[in-house]
Automatic annotation (TrEMBL):
UniProt record similarity statement: Belongs to the mitochondrion-specific ribosomal protein mL43 family.
Main location as per UniProt: mitochondrion
Compartments, as annotated in UniProt: Mitochondrion
Species in which this protein is naturally found: Zophobas morio
GO term, biological process aspect, one: mitochondrial translation
GO cellular component: mitochondrial large ribosomal subunit
Protein's name in the database: Large ribosomal subunit protein mL43
SMART domains, sorted: L51_S25_CI-B8
Keyword hit for Ribonucleoprotein: yes
Superkingdom classification of source: Eukaryota
GO molecular function: structural constituent of ribosome
Amino acid sequence: MSNSHIFLKSGFIRTPSQNGVGRYVCQLQRVVLKFCKNNGSSRGMREFVESELINFAKNNPGVVVYLKPRRHRAPVISAEFLNGDKQWVSCHNYSKQDISKWLNLLRTQSGNTTGFRLRKLQHTDHPSIQGPWTPYTFKDPAENLAEYPNTELSKPKIQLKTATDELLEIFNSVQISDKKGVE
């Protein structure tokens, strides 16, 4: 294990309490679209602002959208969430569809950043000496030496009746009992 986790923030996952139980509360609070009016790398951002920004603002009334023109700078989307976290996306040479996808992603996120070392609520001083369970823990050791594809190992271990077989048996037993009742 490396020591890179030392420099990450540490804590528990903070989620909005019962978000979506009564009604959904969008966690995106504010979006700032920063772009240059003349620079070619901001063309997609300018096209998005001209054609799709009004629809985005109408569809998301809880999100405040700011436009910030800047000279000779690369376009950036800066997002602020209700929990105080901030994220930004560099939109250098992005099309208006890419910017729309990024805004949709930011709108649906909870705002928790990935640079976060998660801590668990449980701890043990005596971990298991057997090691963690894996799907291969109780496998047959013969499978280690088998050559694949192997028809013998491909067969199901337990032959269960299908629902169709069960229904046919019930139908046949009813017919047999009806024949005995008639005779």
